Amino acid sequence: MTPFGEKLRRLRRERGVSQKDMAAAIGVSAAYLSALEHGRRGQPTWVTVQKIIGYFNIIWDEAEDLQRLAESSHPRAVIDTSGLSPRATELANLLAERIGRLGEDELEQIIALLRPARPGG
């Protein structure tokens, strides 16, 4: 599951909406929506994210957060280190090799280190 899929599922369940009903309302198939939630589909398009934001009537910061989650939710990320330093290549390879063995606390630490601080927050 991707961060976007997790958030989408949570929003849908909190509001008591079925995948079938939501899919029909935003113009996608229930199978596509299920695949998004389970991380079997790549990043949704900007248009799809906007439809989801509109469907749930999400505004301001929550809408920006959902868009950010969509942008960082590709289930098969590729890191191109060509032209970067050997240390950058080493980091990319270590992440690829060990990410499945990292605990939630370790993942949070790495994410906090890499994610830029939000302005005003």
Give a structural overview.
With 121 residues, the chain is mostly helical. It folds into 2 domains: 3-71, Orthogonal Bundle (434 Repressor (Amino-terminal Domain)); 78-116, no CATH class. Helix content is 62%, strand content 0%. The protein has helices at 3-14, 19-26, 30-38, 46-55, 60-71, 86-98, 104-114. The longest helix has 13 residues, at 86-98. The chain starts with a helix and ends in a 7-residue tail after the last helix.
Keywords:
434 Repressor (Amino-terminal Domain), about 60% helix, elongated, about 120 residues, mainly alpha, about 0% strand, 2 domains
At a glance:
This protein has helices spanning 3-14, 19-26, 30-38, 46-55, 60-71, 86-98, 104-114. The chain has 121 residues and is an all-alpha fold.
